[in-house]
Specification:
Layout: E1 22-23, H1 26-42, E2 45-52, E3 59-66, E4 69-74, E5 77-82, H2 85-98, E6 102-113, E7 116-127, E8 131-138, E9 144-150, E10 156-162
Helix pairs in contact: 1-2
């Protein structure tokens, strides 16, 4: 799982039935979202990223990750920045060694998102900071389909991911 700061960006509706929720093993709280994050950085994808802060209008960022570039739409104009899947994977893996968080989670069935059946990981981090994350992961591909991060002071980050027909924006190098 990656926060907004771990991606080169400013870092929901099918019908699903939540079946009996069981507490996931402690390793699942970190390993399952980590595996999804690693799978994602290897795949071309797009993101609609929305940050909501109390009392402010939501801020939207559109991004595309394709090849060795990330493309971000700012003020209606696309720009490109270098992107290294290897560097992202190294960062994801190194965060495991640095983590001192107290983490609990639940794994339940999710909803269908963009035709993909999902399971839902609900992760609660209570130390050093309180964070709540929900990540819907495709049961077929292991890729994240949706993510919602609730941070302190009411800040909410929502991401919608897409993996089909991903192309860099026309004319952007």
């Amino acid at each position: 799982m990656r926060s907004a700061s771990s991606r080169p960006r400013a870092r929901l509706l099918g019908i699903g039935l939540v079946v009996s929720a069981t507490a996931a093993q402690a390793n699942d709280c970190i390993d399952v979202p980590r595996a999804a994050a690693i799978a994602q950085v290897k795949a071309p994808h797009s993101v609609v990223h929305v940050t909501t802060s109390p009392g402010k209008a939501p801020e939207r960022a559109d991004m595309i990750f394709a090849g060795d570039k990330a493309y971000m739409k700012v003020d209606g104009k696309w720009s490109a920045i270098p992107f290294s899947a290897k560097d992202q994977i190294d960062m994801i893996n190194s965060s495991r060694a640095e983590g001192q968080a107290v983490v609990t989670c639940q794994k339940t069935s999710g909803e269908t998102i963009s035709g993909e059946p999902t399971f839902l990981m609900t992760v609660h981090e209570s130390a050093p900071k309180v964070n709540d994350v929900r990540i819907w992961i495709s049961t077929r591909t292991g890729l994240p389909m949706r993510e919602e991060i609730k941070l302190g002071r009411g800040l909410v980050i929502s991401d919608e991911f897409r993996y089909d027909n991903i192309q860099p924006p026309a004319g952007v190098k």
